[in-house]
């Protein structure tokens, strides 16, 4: 795993702080939140962070499928693997929760 550094990490933290996070109530057994592309306000920025998660994350298997999980400030972030331009949400969970992903 390559941890994003410098400006990329600062930009990601700003994106995280500015995003509206929604609790995924359909999966209470795996507590996590998500933010939607349509709420991001800037498709290019949303896609930049989808790419960051996929390039700097660590692979882990969930229900037989591998996803990339990026850890930042006590949370893990992941997407569902659709092509970047078709990705509509970014998920996050507290590291160590029972949500999908490593730790």
Structure explained in plain terms:
With 103 residues, the chain is α+β, with helices and mostly antiparallel strands. It has one domain (6-94). Helices cover 30% and strands 28% of the residues. It contains three helices and six strands; from the N terminus they run H-E-E-H-H-E-E-E-E. The chain has helices at 6-18, 37-40, 43-56; strands at 22-23, 33-36, 58-62, 65-72, 75-78, 89-94. A six-stranded antiparallel β-sheet has the order 1-2-6-5-4-3. A hairpin with a 2-residue loop joins strand 3 and strand 4 (65-72). The chain starts with 5 loop residues before the first helix and ends in a 9-residue tail after the last strand. The mean pLDDT is 89.
Labels describing this entry:
103 residues; alpha+beta; 6-stranded antiparallel sheet; 6 strands; 30% helix
Q: How are the secondary structure elements laid out?
A:
Blueprint (H helix, E strand, L loop, with lengths): L5 H13 L3 E2 L9 E4 H4 L2 H14 L1 E5 L2 E8 L2 E4 L10 E6 L9
Antiparallel strand pairs: 1-2, 2-6, 3-4, 4-5, 5-6
Which of globular, elongated, flat, extended, rod-shaped describes the shape? Answer: globular
| Main sheet attributes: strand count, strand direction, barrel closure | 6 strands, antiparallel
The separation of the N and C termini measures 14 Å
Total DSSP E strands = 6
Q: What's the gist of this structure?
A:
This protein has 103 residues and is of the alpha+beta class. Helices cover 30% and strands 28% of the residues.
């Amino acid at each position: 795993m390559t941890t994003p550094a410098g400006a990329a990490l600062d930009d990601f933290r700003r994106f995280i702080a500015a995003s509206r996070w929604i609790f995924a109530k359909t999966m209470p057994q795996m507590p996590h939140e998500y933010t939607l592309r349509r709420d991001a306000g800037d498709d290019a920025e949303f896609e930049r962070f989808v790419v960051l998660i996929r390039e700097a994350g660590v692979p882990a298997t969930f229900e037989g499928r591998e996803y990339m999980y990026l850890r930042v400030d006590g949370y893990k972030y992941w997407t569902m693997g659709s092509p970047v331009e078709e990705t509509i949400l970014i998920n996050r969970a507290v590291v160590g929760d029972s949500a999908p992903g490593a730790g």
